[in-house]
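2024-03-11 09:14:02 INFO queue: dequeued item Ethanolamine utilization protein EutH, len=182
2024-03-11 09:14:02 INFO validating residues
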Amino acid sequence: MDAFIKLVLAACIIQHFTGLFTTLFGHWIFDPLFADEKELYRAIEIAGYIGIMLAGTFPICYLFQKYCQRPMKFIGRRLKLSDTGALGMVMVLANIIAVFHLFASMRARDKVLCVAFGICAQATLGDHLAFTANFQPTLVLPIMAGKFLAGAIAVAIAIFISVPEAQRMEQKDATKCGRRHS
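2024-03-11 09:14:37 INFO prediction written
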């Protein structure tokens, strides 16, 4: 399925820039996968809204980190996360890319839980909120609730399946590093 999707995307890119398949076959079955001339400004408008939303979410993440340490410590204690891991769980709501720079200072448990939460809940307060609010404002609450719930379920599954293995691997790496330095 992944290969098929990539082939269709490649064909759509070729069609968009050259019109090759329309010329050869008379029509293109995936038209318009990309924004056509009629929808181009709408696509740019949506990208602009997403950019504006992200411009606001990252400063909010910083302010949350600086002034909301008590709730973050509560989240951290409940999920057995470090302060950095708790911050990552909040930042992933803006965009998971914002969390990557924190990975160097996270424990294995923090990384696994942030990524598990991020797979389902990433961009809830960023890109996806802007897109949904722009296209279908009545779906904002259901989509946000669904993403939060899916993220919580992913964290619960990760705690039982992935975290123990990640911690074993972290311990194994620490043992190897300890022997090299001794």
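2024-03-11 09:14:37 INFO annotate: The radius of gyration is 21 Å.
2024-03-11 09:14:38 INFO item closed
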